[in-house]
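pls design
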């Protein structure tokens, strides 16, 4: 169902595909969140423990990739590879 929502979002304005990022779409439905201390320890408020620091860095990397990937990047088939747009049902 979410694929149909994305398709319906971009269909009338395909020129926006080069501007709207995957992170924009994610943040529309459920804002991207970074890692916080699950125990809510006061001493971890400013500095995460080593494990959660690593996890937060991984989330930062994911956020960067999603923020630099546009809808056009995943919907345009320029190399005969699978593209999202070809898998979406017709209206």
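designed seq:
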């Amino acid at each position: 169902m979410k694929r149909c929502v994305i398709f319906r979002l971009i269909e009338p304005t395909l020129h926006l595909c080069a501007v709207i990022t995957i992170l924009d779409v994610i943040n529309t439905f459920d804002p991207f969140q970074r890692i916080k201390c699950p125990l809510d320890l006061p001493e971890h408020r400013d500095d995460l423990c080593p494990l959660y620091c690593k996890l937060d860095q991984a989330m930062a990397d994911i956020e960067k990739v999603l923020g630099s990937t546009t809808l056009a990047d995943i919907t345009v088939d320029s190399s005969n590879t699978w593209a999202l747009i070809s898998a979406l049902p017709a209206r």
